[in-house]
Amino acid sequence: MANISSDIIRGYNDTMILSLLLSGPSYGYEISKEIRQRTQEKYIIKETTLYSAFNRLQKNGLVESYSDIGAESGKRRTYYRITESGHAFYREKCAEWELTKDVVEKFVHECETEHI
Known about the structure:
By secondary structure, the chain is an alpha+beta fold. It is built from five helices and three strands.
């Protein structure tokens, strides 16, 4: 099974992270694990990519972070939560995705064996 190229999905990392934060605050490892599970391991976000995204999202006011002690581990963790600006950005990215799919689908068709 082929995995998705990080170059292809890079523009949607922020959207995926914000989507997961819609259901409540979370921390890096949980976000990474959820992305891996939801994609059935077709996309595994690198730790550096994830934390770069958190920094960018925070700098742009789309998420805020706070420290707390994890319920399961008892370790101090940095949690992230989506802001109102983050909600608005997420809605914009969803609309952009619909347009992107519409455009790309004009050129990408189901594989036809006689064309390959």
